[in-house]
Amino acid sequence: MAIEIMRVDPLSVVPKYYQLSEILRHKIDNNEWQPHNPIPPERELETLYNVSRTTVREALNHLANQGYIYREHGRGTFVSRPKMQQSLHTLHSFTDDMGARGSVAGQRILSLECITPSDRVRQQLELPPDVDSIVQVERLRHADDETIGIQLAYLPLTTDQTITSEELLDVGSLYTLLETKFGLIPVEATETLEAIVANEREASLLEIKERSPLLLLERTTYSQHRRPMEFVKMFYRADRYKYYAHLTR
């Protein structure tokens, strides 16, 4: 049976490069092109879809910017791994999220210390005026040994509530540690999501180019006592992570 090849319509108002990028993306989404396998050379795509080399390059640049493909100097262009996906309507830890996908969550603790909260953090955690110290935890998060993002968590723990790097590494999940050690159970949260670009430090930690796109998620998590138990900033690589929401009317 002959394989039907989708064509670029030269008469369409949709730009040719975008038509071609959608055709190629369809192959990736349907696993016709497997992760880390090379895609056909530009010349072959040019002939196969009857388009110019410029159109092919614009289409590939578009897919690369969306995180569907990546280039290796001297080797060619390859299919990226599927992006990690997280629901906007479910509250769970990064560790649980990765486990549900069949991936192994990992972390590297960059710092765990007591700090004086900024006005923004104080507001998010609803801190009383006499609280002048909270716990800050900064971690690199991994999925199957691949760096996905940076998490910066602020915890309004009392002076007799302490956690250590060793405990966090042993348990893996900050939510699990807070629940088992202090009885704090996350039950709901408010979140905001925005697109930003990576600064020099973020780019270095995430192994990407400076000013690469990031997803910044800010979350205030509430315990069963309806009090804030965490304010967290999560900087995710936009080429490796995405969010989805199911909406009804």
Task: List descriptors.
Arc Repressor Mutant, subunit A, 249 residues, 2 domains, single chain, alpha+beta, 6-stranded antiparallel beta sheet, Chorismate lyase, two-stranded antiparallel sheet, 29% helix, 10 strands, 8 helices, elongated
Shape: elongated
Terminal CA distance reads: 44 Å
Calculate the mean pLDDT score and round it: 85
Instruction: Determine the CATH superfamily of the largest domain.
Output: Chorismate lyase-like
Spatial strand arrangement across the major sheet: 4-5-6-9-8-7
Number of separate structural domains: 2
> What is the fold named in CATH at topology level of the largest domain?
Chorismate lyase
Q: Indicate the percent of residues in helices.
A: 25-40%
Number of helices: 8
Give the CATH level 1 class of the largest domain. Answer: Alpha Beta
CATH architecture field of the largest domain: 3-Layer(aba) Sandwich
Strand content: 25-35%
Low-confidence stretches: none
Strand element count: 10
3D structure, described in words:
It is a single chain. The protein has 249 residues and is of the alpha+beta class. The protein has 2 domains: 16-79, Winged helix-like DNA-binding domain superfamily/Winged helix DNA-binding domain (Arc Repressor Mutant, subunit A, Orthogonal Bundle); 84-244, Chorismate lyase-like (Chorismate lyase). Helices cover 29% and strands 32% of the residues. It is built from 8 helices and 10 strands. It has a 6-stranded antiparallel sheet. A hairpin with a 3-residue loop joins β1 (69-72) and β2. α1 packs across α3 and α2 packs across α3. The longest helix is centred in the first third of the chain and has 14 residues, at 16-29. The chain is elongated and about 70 Å long. The two termini are 44 Å apart. The mean pLDDT is 85.
